[in-house]
Amino acid sequence: MKNIFKNSVLVLILAIGFESFAQQDPLYTQYYNNFSLINPAYAGSHGLFTATANIRSQWAGEAGSPETQTLSLHGPVGKNVGLGLSILNDKVFVLSETHVYADFSYSIYPSEYSTLAFGLKVGGSFLDVNLLELGIENDNLFSENLNEFNPNIGAGAFYYTNRFYASVSTVNILQTKHYNKSNAVVSSASDEMIFYLSSGYVFDLSDDFKIRPSVMLRVVNGSPLSTDISTSVLWLDKLEFGISHRINESISGLFQLRLTNNLKVGYTYDAITSNLSNYNNGSHEFSIILNIGKNKNTRKPPFYWMKNKNSEEILKMENEN
């Protein structure tokens, strides 16, 4: 009876942890700051190399709550090819999962002002279950940590002009089951394939102000549809502030500031609107975006807003047409 209880405890730990990973894998509120995490076709779209770091702390104030850190780098290699590398670490309770992926994209140009890119993501996840942290002594089931590596792939397409974008992608194509009888545990926890569909547009309010509405749909087998609806206002391409609503989950305030032509920082606070709101103080998200090199590309997504004279000229020509 004692072994059955302990096995049940371990299965419960794994199931809760994997469910938490699945719910946040990986979707920042400011997802457009690190779009290559969910769509490899985005790699190289800025026309120079871009490094991005993100930190997200969910359910602030709760011990063992989910935390996510990411670091990514992507850029163009020639006119048509983009390459990228991303590292994402998730931690919840005693579970930690590190995702390492390489991205490849290839772009074609349907018109003078538009780009259509296709991408492939290849890599995998290192999973660590730190059972020793539980402090359960004199039990072989909890006497050592559990570790495994699971390869995976993703794919996507990304169409954009300087005002409009549309993105479709999928990750976790190789759906992974975690643990089996060889680990003394039978668990149905798994990494499910995730589909993302997103679009947005930039409108001019005046010479100084722009408004950018966008929407993101996230589909996971066995989970409710996740929908993000966001609107932000940009002032002189220096300051961005806005609001985002993840239906039935949270409402967020976001802020970004361009410190120099090549450096941007951002912050988001998510207030939980679901039943979990009584048990946590929301989520915090920080981001730093650094451009490396000289930007010669005038074809950029509308949520990329580092100062570029040629891009402004293209926006005017698009309006005239």
From TrEMBL:
It comes from the Bacteria. Residues 1-22 form the signal peptide. Keywords: Signal. It holds the Pfam family PorP_SprF. InterPro entries: PorP/SprF_Bacteroidetes. NCBIfam families: T9SS_PorP_fam. This is Type IX secretion system membrane protein, PorP/SprF family.
